[in-house]
Design brief:
Strand content: 15-25%
CATH class of the largest domain: Alpha Beta
Structural class: alpha/beta
Number of domains: 3
Radius of gyration: 20 Å
CATH architecture of the largest domain: 3-Layer(aba) Sandwich
Strand order of the largest sheet: 4-3-5-13-6
CATH topology of the largest domain: D-Maltodextrin-Binding Protein, domain 2
Order of helices and strands: HHHEEHEHEHHEEEEEHEHEHEEH
Largest sheet: 5 strands, mixed
Number of helices: 11
């Protein structure tokens, strides 16, 4: 099994579309199809099903993706730890923690394009890591949500306040023709829930608590699987306007949730008593300005 093929599998699983995944990977669709076929032949099973124009993971594919995510997360962590020993000057290094990489992909890519000399160490922050004060202190900046970090140790600027809750549904779902909904109206639906370790799981829990019910049935998965689960019409999910605007949920239809209207504001955090390096200061200014431009159209 080639590691490159597993990366191709991961990208296709997250995008759910052969042509789009091929463009990201900069290979031809036949080459991508051949890589997936090689994996399926090695494991003697199909990993994807076709649903309309989309390619969605089946049960075997979802099981494999869970392991593949662990493999690449571990490789990223190993790279970050090894880089800690590099002697790159502090004015070129940026240690960045994020709770939702998909949400900030365009901004981070824009910053890297404008600052080719930056040495980026990005870390995905689970709820457990956010609670680990010592690990967080090793970071220069954190892109997170309200309540993710203690305000007595961290300063913050709100960079995304107008971030209301939405209900995402498959285009064929009976709710798809509506513009807005009270969350309690969906109490009998199967929900696609984010995993327990994700920062946004607490926000989800609060939404259900305020609506006065807990989902009777739910599918639980990582961010990377939500689009595929929606495309397969395996449930509905809670999200926010900022996530909807990234396009990461594919052809989903979004309904405004009129009640409860629990916003999920995002902040850029930095440690109150730590002197930031030049690159961290530059990124902080970049992300604040980028989000201000977004607010003003």
């Amino acid at each position: 099994m080639k590691l490159r093929h597993l990366w191709y599998f991961k990208v296709l699983a997250e995008r759910g579309h052969l042509t789009n995944a091929s463009k990201i990977l900069m290979i031809s669709p036949p080459a991508l199809r051949g890589a997936i076929r090689a994996i399926e032949e090695e494991y003697h099973c199909r990993l994807f099903d076709h649903v309309g124009r989309n390619i969605v993971l089946n049960e075997k594919g979802r099981a494999l993706l869970a392991h593949v995510n662990v493999i690449f997360n571990e490789l990223d962590q190993a790279e970050n730890e090894l880089r800690m020993d590099m002697q790159a000057p502090d004015d070129t290094r940026l240690r960045l923690g994020v709770v939702s990489p998909t949400l900030w992909y365009r901004e981070i890519q824009g910053f890297l394009s404008e600052n080719p000399s930056v040495v980026l160490e990005q870390r995905m922050l689970s709820r457990a890591l956010l609670a680990d004060a010592e690990s967080c202190r090793k970071l220069d900046l954190v892109l997170g949500a309200s309540g993710d970090l203690p305000y007595d140790e961290w300063d913050a600027v709100c960079i995304c306040y107008e971030n209301p809750p939405l209900l995402a549904v498959n285009p064929k779902h009976p709710f798809a023709g509506r513009k807005r909904i009270r969350l309690v109206e969906a109490r009998n639906e199967i929900f696609i829930r984010i995993t327990q370790d994700a920062s946004s799981r607490g926000w989800e829990d609060n939404m259900f608590r305020l609506a006065g019910f807990q989902p009777q049935e739910s599918n639980e998965c990582h961010f990377s699987l939500r689009a595929s689960m929606l495309a397969a019409n395996r449930g509905v999910l809670l999200t926010t306007r900022s996530v909807a605007e990234t396009g990461s949920l594919g052809d989903a239809v979004f309904l405004e949730i009129s009640e409860p209207k629990l916003y999920r504001p995002y902040f850029i955090f930095w440690q109150r008593h730590k002197t930031l390096g030049e690159m961290a200061k530059r990124f902080r200014e970049f992300i604040i300005n980028a989000m201000d431009r977004g607010k003003n159209g």
